[in-house]
Records
---
Amino acid sequence: MLGIFISFLLATSATAIWPKPRLVQNGTTRIVLNSNTYGFKALTSTVELEDAFRRYKSIFFPHATEPVPDPSNNGLVVDILDPTAALALGVNESYTLDVHLDGTTFIAAKTVWGALHGLETMSQLVDFNFATGQYSVSGVPVHIEDEPRFQHRGLLIDSGRHFEPVIHVKALLDSMSYAKMNVLHWHLTEDQSFPIASRVHPELAAKGAYNDFEQYTWQDIVDVVKHARLRGIRVIPEFDMPGHTSAWRKSHPEIFAEGCLTESSRGAFDPAKNETFDFLQATLKDWAEIFPDLFLHLGSDEVPSGCWNNSKDLAWMKTMGFANTSEVFNYFVNRMAAISTKLGRQTIFWDEAFLFAKPPQDAVIQNWHDASLMQKIVDAGYRAIFSSNGGYTHGWYLDGLAATWDNMYVLEPLTNISADKEKLVLGGEGCMWGEGVDPSDLEFTVWPRLAAIAERLWSDRSVNSTVEAQPRLEIFRCQLLARGVHSGVVGGNGRSPPPGPGSCTQPGKTEEQLFV
Amino acid sequence: MLGIFISFLLATSATAIWPKPRLVQNGTTRIVLNSNTYGFKALTSTVELEDAFRRYKSIFFPHATEPVPDPSNNGLVVDILDPTAALALGVNESYTLDVHLDGTTFIAAKTVWGALHGLETMSQLVDFNFATGQYSVSGVPVHIEDEPRFQHRGLLIDSGRHFEPVIHVKALLDSMSYAKMNVLHWHLTEDQSFPIASRVHPELAAKGAYNDFEQYTWQDIVDVVKHARLRGIRVIPEFDMPGHTSAWRKSHPEIFAEGCLTESSRGAFDPAKNETFDFLQATLKDWAEIFPDLFLHLGSDEVPSGCWNNSKDLAWMKTMGFANTSEVFNYFVNRMAAISTKLGRQTIFWDEAFLFAKPPQDAVIQNWHDASLMQKIVDAGYRAIFSSNGGYTHGWYLDGLAATWDNMYVLEPLTNISADKEKLVLGGEGCMWGEGVDPSDLEFTVWPRLAAIAERLWSDRSVNSTVEAQPRLEIFRCQLLARGVHSGVVGGNGRSPPPGPGSCTQPGKTEEQLFV
């Protein structure tokens, strides 16, 4: 059968899939799908698949159409080898997708999580013809074999600097699944606010949130984690520490270093007290019940270590034999990593923990400074996540508005990584820091640039031509819009409004350019 | 009973309602609502109310909570005098709302459309307390009597310059209902594109749309009109003509004046041919089936009347005794108004039809030039809709990004209108022209500024202090965010990103302002 497939670039949706699959083989036939009878069936039904079928039915077929006779009774069948495989780092996400000439569609996957990606790919193949009112797939028979290059494909959002109501976080998770992203890195607490409920210390949010309503209830978090899981997305919470913690200070100044206790100073936890670690362990143990993922992000960036330059901490440092604050930082990082281990978690730290401390070898280091650090991190034997800010112009920091999609697209996490260390690069993240985004402009700033990162992390390393990618990305952006996502235009800086009238694939032209 | 109410400004949600009701009387008690048992009941059930109950249940109670004992079995009862009153210009939209000390809520309205506003007001009274996990209403007993000042409270969107997928139009309708807006003025066709299906002339969209997918199917329009109606919003379609029509020319150059037939020229319909009017009548008759509203907007702005300066049209003008193109324009306007009448519709025209022609007296004139025109329009006996662009800085053009919410708020449609002519001012509209907005930034640009217009059109004329309004508007903006609307911050120009970290009520401060 495979012999009759012709693999070449067709100007159809079959070759416009984003992110680009590993292998696409196309025929030349256009087949019609009957939206009124097209069925979704799992050989072994799971809760996740049934939920996905419900979602994708309306994504495949967004327009109401008149029923038409359908002798073929076509539909989609999903077969999963291990329907119970848990969503976790490194779970098999591969799938194969076949669309046959009779309209039947077959998705085979090792796990539910791979099957979800197959459904997403299929959804991008279905076109609607306004003239005939019919749904169709071009380039049939279609045979696709696909799997991600990296295990960790994430987006960081920062709900500490601006609160993002649950409805917006869920919408963002929906949009991430369209690009096959699988990690929401949820930076939950900051100097500015503390929006997440704690059962053991409810006063943290009561006093640390911006106000009485910009908070997540316990059940809200459960709800978001479930929403994410149904879309194959792990939620990794970040509780940044020992710096970026001033909002904790509003209710618990006693665990803060005395050097920075005023409201207008950036505080740091006090590592001299066992009380501090007992407190943190109690809160993290509580939260571990709603964040089931193996990984816990404990920050460690931009520590205002000057806070430890006070008589009490200096005396304690002497007792401990610490010569400087770097040694204090190292102590803090390792003691927190031990707590994380006790809670059954592995810890992710920002790259300061690698630069200025020596965390345990099972820690994961997230690179945000210069990209060249990646090589050093893996050469030291640590696993690494790539999210270099690239000077805010050539990195994966989405708050760097001067960083364009194509700048992000060509960044390669494996640059200068030796072959034997490649396995240590888990993947990467786009980082949507919250200083200048809130629900007004969050999606607008994230998309379509996150799509560039998503393809870099999913597709083969050889898929790196911005010229080839651009028309596909423009179509993907149109699909995002049709699904309700507020994606910006392709081209220009981050968050560029359309410069003039135009279609969703074009940035637009001014009236003067359109009409003389 | 009324005697015990104390009417004064409480710092509670009961006085933060947007737009401000005509009369609010408050007690001083805070009562708890049990979200698990709170019921919604209509004394006479209607489809619209049942749908609204479903929506508002999740708006009243957005967070999942643990069931608690509820001896009071409180809930909301709606009583409607005329449940069959059709949604139309001038329908009674008044309501009264009473929240009693035992938690029962009573909404009385003349029509379903008034009752919907009562539900919206009640939704703005319900607070969630994160510490206790309880919903409550403060200032009980609450007695509110409310009705709009103007009958026509609209938003214009422009789907001709950028296509807005149905899912975005529906989201916008949802958000409009939160501000008690009741008209979507849907500018559907433009020089740039023709996105709407026509059953009699499908080639109009097939050739005039930007592409194969940025189009509305017939069923899409039906779906949007129904979605709007369920929220008390009339949909008034605009088919702008005789100018702003170049996208029609792609399939039907034969109804265009020969003076402007090239692709790069802005075209104008040819009034010299009966064929033109026959064609337009056929298309409008078709669309009349899916746009049930009494009003049809036929544009008439910015006519490139130079297109009529060609030998054929000049010869025809001679035959007709027309001295200039103004007389041609007048002929076109009146002939189209006659077609509209034949289709059972009344016509709305932009103010050029008043300035340069003499439409029939039952036409409605929409003012977009200087606000001073309003007086002239009503003095000439026409009904008027206010949407002056105010030089794009002090008007109701939302694409005028320099126009701030407070500039919009203080504009009064009845300025210089004599008392006996006030009835002729139907209301006003915020105009979100589409050159620089598409789904990426549409809501971000519309909100919160449209809220300023909404309150001007709903509340008493005396409610005009920006100082009093601002904290209420900030709370309303937070409510919009919590409901999934992408509203910009209060303050600054249109579409200003938050300048730094902060709560939803505050524009934000830079890191440097927050921490020394």
---
Amino acid sequence: MMARNEPNLQIRVMSRRRNGAISILVMSAIMISSMRVVAASTAAKAVAASTPPLADKPARHKRLNIESISNNLKAMEYAVRGKIAIEADKISEELKHPSPSSSTKYPFDHIIYTNIGNPHAVQQKALTWPRQVMALLQLPDAIGINHPEAHRLFPPDAIERARQMKASLGGHGIGAYTHSKGVREFREDVARFIEERDGARRGSVDVENIFLTAGASEAITMVMTALIKDSSCGIMIPIPQYPLYSATLDLLGGHKVGYYLDEQSIWGMNIEELERSLAEAKSNGVNVVALVLINPGNPTGQVLSSQEVKDIVSFCARHNLVLLSDEVYQENVYRDEDEFFSSRRAADELGLIENDAIQLCSFHSVSKGVFGECGQRGGYVEMVGIPEDVNDCFYKLAASKLCSNAPGQAMVSLMCKGPNRGDVSYESHEREKMAVFEGLKDRASIVSQGLDNIPGFSCQPATGAMYCFPSVHMPPGAMRASNEMGMSPDTLYALDLLQTKGICVVPASGFGQKEGRFGFRTTFLSPEMRTVVDSIRDHYEQFCAKYAD
Amino acid sequence: MMARNEPNLQIRVMSRRRNGAISILVMSAIMISSMRVVAASTAAKAVAASTPPLADKPARHKRLNIESISNNLKAMEYAVRGKIAIEADKISEELKHPSPSSSTKYPFDHIIYTNIGNPHAVQQKALTWPRQVMALLQLPDAIGINHPEAHRLFPPDAIERARQMKASLGGHGIGAYTHSKGVREFREDVARFIEERDGARRGSVDVENIFLTAGASEAITMVMTALIKDSSCGIMIPIPQYPLYSATLDLLGGHKVGYYLDEQSIWGMNIEELERSLAEAKSNGVNVVALVLINPGNPTGQVLSSQEVKDIVSFCARHNLVLLSDEVYQENVYRDEDEFFSSRRAADELGLIENDAIQLCSFHSVSKGVFGECGQRGGYVEMVGIPEDVNDCFYKLAASKLCSNAPGQAMVSLMCKGPNRGDVSYESHEREKMAVFEGLKDRASIVSQGLDNIPGFSCQPATGAMYCFPSVHMPPGAMRASNEMGMSPDTLYALDLLQTKGICVVPASGFGQKEGRFGFRTTFLSPEMRTVVDSIRDHYEQFCAKYAD
């Protein structure tokens, strides 16, 4: 959540502030480490004296305290909703409920959240047809698909699809637990989707290898839970990367084995760098078990060519690494010359699937693409080359959570299988999808070019995904001031941008970057992005003046 | 998932069977342990030789294999969807798609699933009004709450509530990520619900201490993740218990510190037994950090009196244990003389909250009660006495998963706050809830008395929750046969019941029980339960004859 070298600030910013509570918390943070031994022995005495009165124990004797909880949880960092976002929420609350003292504090009237790929929060509309089907799935038959006036609100192809999906749900509706891997027929929709996308033989994707999950995040966590057997294990992750990977490795106590993307070649990957990273980790005694590929990239937006994907898949096969292929932005490819090429397809064309010579888990989600249905929490993982007994362990883990939410599973099915060509909603559904896509495509170039044109900024073209990841030259005064304040220079920058312009970005240090580079990640989702770019330009001038030396 | 002493069977039953695959898998299971060392060194060589050909590595060299995955995951057991349920699914598939050879194999035409508290899967209907609101939340405004003909399908109080909830969602709808703790206004509904239920002062429940989660399971896992710092930590769990607790402890590598419920006093709890269990664990060097209370009980159905709850809360305060209070069956209390009494209320009345002398996490869910909305995956945890910096760590963990599904959050809000008295849907909503409740209440006594009347069975009254947990006398032949087959006697019993009657129960050994006791858990949800009890009686006679000696 923040850099390890800023403990006081961590406590300060992570705490919910109420009147006067901040200073006390900062004090406790400073005091805790020196008090640890004393507190522990006092606690032991308190337990031994197993009689009341109970009421006067001070808070630090509590069983569940910041010293007693899992170190891995404590160490875990997650930048996207970290320090800057928490500060933004605080300001947002102040703006909504201004007190007499704070009402003129900020020169803006709302926060523009560009920190998170959350399209519906920045005015992207839900697609009509999938939502009509979802609504019908919620309604009991008699007042939904069988209501005599249902046709007044719902088109026939939504009613028909809801009827089919209710049959797939065994007539139980979405109120029943499903199979722990997800509704079988919905997984079949996923399987057909993958086969069509990759030009694979019909039936070549096995539904038993597909798990429907609460977004891709849950699937990624599930697989990593199995992979990290002990603290000697590590997983190769790109630098920069989406911080779920580092956060989950922190939580599981595994090694983060970073490999660098090449900023100058639009954040390209090269095999030499993968070999270097792997060799270095091995020489440090790390048992490297897997590699994370994010294509299209997050936060970097690169779209890999078929050859690049094949090279990476071959690298994994050669070194017997499980490939974790994060493909949640597969629909978000903006240049005519680019095409999404899945890791599965690469493995297939290399003969690695037929020969059972690759282990691959690929992740997808309804949260991105043109659906942008983040709040529905629907996603899937397809596993290739995973032994049945290991698959059974994943099933066991999924079963202990019973199942992922049935509406989210339904949304995955609707993403994978839209209205049929010729159905009444087909044209409008395609038109709506295209409108979202074109909007994203336009803003991708407006924002990346706009940022690249700011003197002191450098921003690669956003060829995919939903983000720009510019580097920003830090004036000398900002370097010094941030050092004195115990935060990274780009955290200082992002905080200043938030406080003066109301724009919430994520410091690049939260994703990882080369030593000496600074910058941030912004989405390009908001229709306000032109104004945002102007504000960022304006702010940077002021920032450079403020921190000139 | 199954007893540790039946490895071969574990592999056999856990594996998805395809033509002829079983025997191969059983063989591999036997071979694996002797091959482990060889395989590891061969794998090391394979990695060192980092050149193609890649295609001919045998499966056991794969990076992700049953030997290389997390031991904790491998060891984890989860009975509710374990061996018997997997076998039931297999038979169910065979019945749906009979082959010429198998068509006359079973003397029943469908499986009756009584293994899992999944009300909608056994004909319980969704409540109308909440589903109407949920449907409107899915529909974009123009074709939902603002559609000129919306009133033809939806009552005005559903439209009005959906309008309010959409405002709470910031106008973004359920397609956007929410705050990671859940939508603030929905958490306020939870807070008011708790205050009213417990007769607490309005405003005494802090929304910052409430997290909305994907069912109670996610909340329980979240809290336990923080509590188990290392393998010295343990949590007290009832015997018998809901296997999520033991499974999660397995996964996190913590100790299961069992305390026995007293079957003869309707599965009551007594403090002496808690003291005994705690003292024994401490003397074994276990750092006991928390106690799990399930009230009303699962699988046992006991409803604790206010004094019993107070005694347990005091015990936790005295020994500085975090109390994990699983209260998902709080609405499922069937005897007139019983009343649900929450742990929070007990702590409050004892002055422990005011004096900050208790740490309590209480869990609730939309899956049980009279909603039974398992598939929607909505739940919450309210935390009491948890330091802010620890709360912030929970927030960080929730943030790394972004948020729980927004429709599930909405369902929690609807459970906590129904239509207002006087609104058009108020009466019908109450009537529907009462009908579900009365049905459950009737079946609770029909099933528990029916089972108790079977010679050789003993079944305590089901005063709460959704389950009966009879003990079953095992004939000598069953003891011997199960031993020979490497499974627990009640697993043999449950398998035989499944194969001859098509009834799927969970062997009691999956929940834990006193040495020498045998039995099973059945829900009493299905309207077919009278027939089920007759079938169980009938089967037991045959079973006793078959395994007489």
